[in-house]
Amino acid sequence: MPTISVIVPIYNVEQYLKSCIDSILAQSFRDFELILVDDGSPDRCGEICDEYKKHDDRIIVIHKENGGLSDARNKGIDIAKGQYLSFIDSDDVINPSMLKTLYENAIRFDADISACRYCRFEDDVPVDIPTDNSNIKTFNTREKIFTDYFSRPSNLLLTSCNKIYKRTLLANCRFRKMHTWEDVEFAAQLITNNRCNKAVLTFDTLYYYRDRKMSISNTAPSLSIKLRSFEFQNYIFSKIPVRDRSYKGVLIDFFVDSILFQVRGQPIDTITKHEKITIQIILIKWVFLGYVNRFLKSKQFHRYISEIINL
Fold it and tell me: Helix (H, G, I), strand (E, B), or coil: what is residue 121?
């Protein structure tokens, strides 16, 4: 049984896939399986995966019909055998010491989640970034982990790709199929899980995020898609026991800030009838669930109003 299962969802990244796989195979930590999930990619990604599999028996390749990022990750989770799981996007690369550092920190601090910092790059992969694992921060309760995840700025960061997770955390957790924010919902699932009690972060920058204009995270969704994404907050709230009001307060502040950021600058005359109805439904739900007072009192809301009237 491998110590770590590394899951890579793959779609239309032929140009970048080899550098991603090479960076994983170059890890100083060797006890891992690499699960490459070809999500019905229309280019040569599937062939590239099969070619790598011929030369390394740690590699497992799944070919499936296109179902999106969340579905591809879930397929990997379903077959993973590792004690810890890691997710890496197929156009990114990782530092040679990433898995070793995250695993050693997880063991040393008995952490359910072990994370690192990440940086963005466009063309040349970052090199010569100092990594000595000397600056470490621990989060010893679910409340501290949750509050940090959903704060601005966050230390642990909401992305799923700069971490390893103890396998037991994912026993009943899967990525929800969404156009955006699947990492946000996944994080809320994990942290409100009774099994998640400790996290550790190294401030070493070990994950390198390729900043592509046409990647999923950089392709701006329509307002309709944004609004559908916002609605999943009600799904998250339904999973959090009423007694955990502190969690809900943190989430509401996070959503207020995100909604104001996403919707600002949207010309009124470009909002469709369907989008207006969706907004009305969301507002009605907020009134019914008692979120409006929190919204109106939030610092984010007042900052937004101040920006509008140029105070």
Answer: strand
